Amino acid sequence: MKSFKTLIVALLTIAVVTGTIAGDVKITDISRTAKLTKLNIGIFRSKPYKVSKIPEILKNLPCIILPRGTGNKPGLQFSFTIDKPATIYLFVHKRGKFAPAGWDKTELTANWLVGKSVYSDAIFKKDFPAGKVVIPEHKGTSAGKPPYGVAHLAVVKEK
């Protein structure tokens, strides 16, 4: 009986870690060099940009991150597919007062570090049905010239 309980606990642990418990949104078809991870303090938003402050309500949710790319071009657009309706929270680097069209700004904010310098994100949200989600490029600049904002971080929360 003890080994049966140990087996059940192990299987449940694996299901939680891999996101296979019923109710989780399955995220597939992630484009470009984007990567799927869990939102937590200390993850790299895009190396060397390390997340230092996040809203508690978004902690441990699946998120998609994308490498910076060149600062001389807008932060890259990317996409992914979800199998259930979800609210996507978009972390938008506060550069050039950029606001993505069709997204609602929230009161939530996040911070990230480059060395000892602190940068901030405004957080927007948008509801999506099951299917393809397209994350827009970041076209914001300071003083109307490069560098552009860092590519967005997208957090997926089941509706």
Query: Low-confidence spans: pLDDT under 50, at least 5 residues?
Result: 7-22
Gap between N and C termini? 38 Å
User: What is the total number of structural domains?
Assistant: 1
Largest sheet: 8 strands, antiparallel
Strand % is: 35-45%
Strand runs, count: 13
What's the average pLDDT? Answer: 86
Q: Please give the order of strands in the largest beta sheet.
A: 2-5-13-7-9-8-4-3
- The total count of helices amounts to 1
Shape: globular
Radius of gyration: 17 Å
Helix content range of the residues, please? 10-25%
Please trace the helix and strand order, writing H or E for each element: HEEEEEEEEEEEEE
Q: Structural class of the secondary structure composition?
A: mainly beta
